[in-house]
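Fig. S4 source data, part A: sequence.
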Amino acid sequence: MPRLSEYLLPTEREPPADAEALSHRLLVRAGLIRQVGAGLWTWLPAGWRTHQRIVQIIREEMDAIGGMEMLMPILQPAELWRRSGRYEGFGEELFKLKDRKDADMVLAPTSEEVITTHAATLIRSYRDLPRVLYHFQTKERDEPRPRAAVLRSREFVMKDSYSFDRDREGLDISYQKHAGAYDRILDRCGLEWYSVEADVGAMGGFGAHEYMAPCPAGENDVVLAPGYAANLEVARAEAQPVVLPSAPAAPEEVQTPGMTTITQVAEALGLPEGALLKAYPVVLPNGSLTLVMLRGDHRVNEVKLALALGSSFRPASAEEIERHLGPPGSIGPVGVQVPVLLDDAVVADGGGYVVGANRPDRHLRGVVPGRDFAFARGDVRAVVAGDRVDGHEVRIERAIEVGNIFKLGTRYSDVLGATYLDRSGVAQPVWMGCYGIGPARIAAAAIEQFADDRGISWPRSISPFAVHLVTLGKEGSEERALSERIYAELVSAGIDTLYDDRDAGPGEKFADAELLGCPLRVTVGRRTLQSGELEVQVRRGQEPRALPLEGAAAAIAELWRHVA
């Protein structure tokens, strides 16, 4: 139980000049972290206490579902990643290096390759399944734009767990066990959160959910409606209707001099932007071009577009557009010789749309999909606020991703040879899931959600200390003697206490206590001696309490158990 006069807690009056997120400002000001370089942060003693409290909560819940803790290396042979296809496929975020023997290595952001390789040699029979293995390990990601301190850093600790099952039904059970464990972890950490449908991304597989903590500093947009939650990357909803003008017997060309944007053309023709179709030409890996069309008031969702195309893509260059379609700014689907992918929100009846005519300063009005151009369908647009799911309007809010769970299936076991012998002695692939959660992100999310204008307000389960004891007495005074007695009682009762015994003024001590944000602040001063009562402040809400000196430690412990 530290005395602040002997403890490293370098509080600051001013935040870093480059700090944008509230958690970044307060983590530094409260003396919890310090920067080493871009995306690289040191956890100082009080900050690390919070981090490790979160780790322990995670460990307890993982153990409760049968998880077995282990530790895998962060430095991994590149050959494993080549075998899985992720050495090139993971992207530029993967740190790559060579050892002294010129062998290719990676600094791993995740450990599917290693754990699956172990499974290939350690799992032999159906009797060896199911299994859940997990570890806490430092992760490395070469983030192009590290930001918000520990919210997006290049090095961080994560808990990764991996489930191994005989079949898809077994995987579904393991997946639900992890979902329940994550629910309990985030509840115990005191966060506001929700689970949302998500894209599998670089992990692969066929199903995923993300655990989101809503706050303005989040990097993810989440689509919400009663009974529905999904990351914007994969969200699906019924588009808001748009009134279309009636369609003539055939498309009619209209002059649109100098108009190259949806807004310009819509205003000139007196139409809502949703009555126009915008073109998004893309090039596939084989070099072929596809023309993606969607309503003018919508925008492309690149994750959903890749799924609809069944491959990666890149936007077509101006030269490619000119060569295959016409002048950029006036592109449309009528008469083109390339495939057209039409978004599901574009109706094929009920009126006509305005599209580019593939000629300078020209558009076509009264264009009807199917009548005037052929197309394939796909859901490729980003959902917008006001769309509907099951009749309910959706809203979109920012959130921090603090954890994720994936159904990998046999994605890694197939390529890395992880099989088992079933009851008939026939080799079968192991079915896998992977599950990640970030202690640092949970800490930052808690700050973002509960801080006030005076500083952090920790949920009690993850606060670095339960009690911040402030003495206002000088050395040798009655107040100091009473403070020492209260401190000894708190320590003896097993209450985590930070004792501010510094030779500093009341204003500085109170400001530091509110900045650090422990659930309870106990003040011992002249008024304590006069009234025979301790001054206690519940940090969240700045709520004052008075507790009798007799049995103070027990009363403080009881109060702490009932704060948020």
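Fig. S4 source data, part B ends here. The chain has three domains: 4-208+408-447, 252-378, 467-561.
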